[in-house]
Design a protein that fits this description.
The protein has about 350 residues and is α/β, with parallel strands linked by helices. The chain folds into 2 domains: about 110 residues, 3-Layer(aba) Sandwich (Rossmann fold), CATH 3.40.50.720; about 190 residues, Dihydrodipicolinate Reductase, domain 2. It is about 35% helix and about 25% strand. It is built from 12 helices and 14 strands. It has an 8-stranded mixed beta sheet. Strands 3-2-1-4-5-6 form a 6-stranded parallel beta sheet, sandwiched between helices. The termini are far apart.
Length: about 350
């Protein structure tokens, strides 16, 4: 039995708990929080042991894996502590909010010989897997455009519900770093490395936040293809997120978890079957207007992959290096927006953001 311990007992920790409960050979055995009452409430709900500090939980020999569910800018410290204690580490997205902090987590896990995974469950959806297989199989011909759209809605009450929300220090950014990062990850996974970015960001519809609630970016991929990222938490009532991939021989569109367009110059029997199923709309708005409305099925698939990696001595599908990529792209977008210049990737180091220093 592989025992999991959760650091942070908020909303996302409950999704992790549901996912772990579905994995044979895994069990949630412990949790911890800076507020003991939160840890105890979570423990009572989940049937695990509550601890008042990360150090206490790490001393529990039943804990094999530590999953980090703290605010984004507070992932580093418990992740490194877990690695130093010989525990495998799973970190909720983003891996961290700066490249330096991402690298410290990656280095600590490598140094201690433990596995590391960054949570990006969208890659595990059936639609995403089919799209990745099509891209890698060359079905699109020459890739020409790759676009990601996350036009969600968050109320002012959402940002006011936690002092860390909408701050540079703990959220690490706004609509891009917190909400759209899943589609940023999908886009780079599908289209390959980004070569350069130009961008604009703004805070238009929310008060008392330091970060953006609207962002647009224009991308050039190393393949030569172009792309767009649009992200917002200020599009009432909230739309389903989309990924669009276009090429000289085909086009495909994923809306939330469903394939909505699947057209190629040469359609196989399998392609026709997929295309015929595109009339079926998803019955969920995902996180478009309610962050608690997401499902946990894809989380379960990713945790299953991680448990398999532990048992077989292999690497998880989404490791620390993969988790770092989307953070780098988003930081480049912020720098491009701040300077009004095109920013080249990879970044040599963390960009100095005036907005962060002001925040």
């Amino acid at each position: 039995m592989i025992g999991f311990g959760v650091v942070g007992c908020g909303m996302i920790a409950r999704f992790h708990a549901k996912a772990i409960a579905e994995i044979r050979g895994a069990k949630l055995v412990a949790c911890c929080s800076s507020r003991m009452e939160s840890a105890q409430k979570f423990a009572d709900e989940q049937g695990c042991t509550a601890y008042g500090s990360t150090a206490e939980m790490l001393a529990d020999p039943a804990v094999t894996v530590v999953t980090i569910c703290t605010p984004s800018g507070a992932h580093l410290e418990p992740a490194v502590a877990a690695a130093n204690a010989g525990k495998h580490v799973v970190v909720e997205k983003p891996l961290e909010i700066t490249l330096k902090r991402c690298d410290k987590i990656i280095d600590a896990c490598e140094k201690n010989g433990v596995l590391l995974s960054t949570i990006f469950p969208s890659r595990f959806h059936d639609a995403s897997q089919k799209l990745k297989k099509a891209v890698d199989g060359g079905k699109f011909g020459t890739l020409t455009l790759g676009d990601a759209y996350v036009k969600w809605f968050r109320t002012q009450e959402y940002y006011d519900s936690g002092q860390w929300r909408g701050t540079w220090d703990l959220d690490g950014g706004g609509a891009l770093m917190n909400q759209a990062i899943h589609n940023v990850d999908l886009l780079s996974w599908l289209m390959g490395p980004v070569e350069s970015i130009s961008a604009n960001v703004a805070t238009l519809a929310h008060d008392r936040i330091q970060v953006e609630d609207v962002a647009t970016a224009s991308l050039r991929f190393k393949s030569g293809a172009l792309g767009v990222i649009e992200a917002t938490t200020a599009a009432f009532p909230g739309m389903l997120k989309k990924i669009e991939i276009h090429g000289s021989h085909g086009s495909a569109v994923i809306e939330e978890e469903d394939i909505k367009t699947w057209e190629f110059a040469k359609m196989t029997a399998q392609d026709k079957k997929i295309a015929a199923a595109t009339e079926t709309m998803t019955d969920t708005g995902g996180g478009a207007a309610d962050p608690s409305a997401i499902g946990h099925a894809a989380h379960a698939k990713q945790f299953k992959d991680f448990v398999k990696a532990i048992k077989t001595g292999s690497q998880p599908v989404i490791d620390g290096a993969e988790g770092r990529k989307s953070v780098e792209i988003i930081l480049a977008i912020y720098k491009a927006a701040e300077t009004g210049k095109s920013i080249s990737l990879p970044l040599a180091k963390d960009p100095v953001l005036k907005a962060r220093s002001k925040g």
